[in-house]
Amino acid sequence: MIKSRQLLLIGFLTLGILPHALHVSAQVVEVEKKAAPPQEMEKKKSPATVTMGLNADSFFGFYPSVYGTYQLREDFAIAWNLILWTNTSGLGSGNNNPWVQTDLGVNLTYFDKKLSVAPMFGFTHGMYLSSRGGFFPGTGEPAGGPGGESVNQRTSIFEGYTLSLLTNWLSEKLEAEFYGAYYAALRQEGGVPSATHPPGSIGARGSWDFLYWWGNAGYRINDIFSVGGHYEQFMSTRDNSAPGAQMDFYSWVGPYAEVKLLEGLLFRFTGGKDVVNDIDFYKVKFTKTF
């Protein structure tokens, strides 16, 4: 009889403790679930990043840009780039005809992501490369007849191509950048030198290619401020409007100051001397990375 009572007591205790134990176990599981989201969120983090930039300088004017990557492996990503050259009416260009550059390539990282290398291939759309004659007003070809303005040349998609390389180094105390691009015309929409406008004369027409590159290096004072030096060059490497018509448009050298703000914001101002034209220059860049 005593054993029966003891068994009943043990049974009642078990029935009483079991729901409580199950409840506690469920709470533990719930706590573990609540602690899991950061890991789950890390797993679900988007492999895509996008950097939007607002740029302006004393030669090209205002040109916004967008650069993006899609991570396929830890140190390998697909990269793409878009530049809207909204005002190319400076030296050696044709009117305010918008010029668009689209690039596609890869982004490779090394040394714990301190170094990134992004080779790219792309196309240009507009008239900048394919319409050399757009630089000269009042030539009468092809718009408006004799004496008409020639600055509004034909807009063409895939009017040129570009090969480029962008590299960045960013460590605790040092930063450096290099960008080099070769632009070549694929089409010739601005005409060719003729009897009415022979090579070398005002109004000679054709197409041209360019080399554009810059590099800089600086010291990071802290996580926010950095300073350094900048060199940049822009030149035509082929100009079929006349023998030997290719030229250096500018060579810029000067210091820069940069501020890295919170949430992926960056502001840089660069200024100095154009040693080709003996004038000053400036560059302004503001970017936001998402």
Q: Which H/E pattern describes the elements?
A: HHEEEEEEEEEEEEE
The overall pLDDT, averaged over residues, is 78
- Low-confidence spans: 7-34, 89-96, 134-151
User: What's the overall geometry?
Assistant: globular
Number of helices: 2
Question: What can you see in these coordinates?
Answer:
Helices cover 14% and strands 50% of the residues. The longest helix is centred in the N-terminal third of the chain and has 34 residues, at 2-35. It is built from 2 helices and 13 strands. The protein has a 12-stranded antiparallel β-barrel. A hairpin with a 4-residue loop joins β12 and β13 (279-289). The relative contact order is 0.11. The chain has helices spanning 2-35, 37-43; strands at 48-57, 61-62, 65-73, 76-85, 99-110, 115-126, 156-170, 174-185, 208-220, 225-239, 248-260, 265-274, 279-289. The chain is mainly β. The termini are far apart.
Write the layout of secondary structure elements.
Blueprint: H1 2-35, H2 37-43, E1 48-57, E2 61-62, E3 65-73, E4 76-85, E5 99-110, E6 115-126, E7 156-170, E8 174-185, E9 208-220, E10 225-239, E11 248-260, E12 265-274, E13 279-289
Antiparallel strand pairs: 1-2, 1-3, 1-13, 3-4, 4-5, 5-6, 6-7, 7-8, 8-9, 9-10, 10-11, 11-12, 12-13
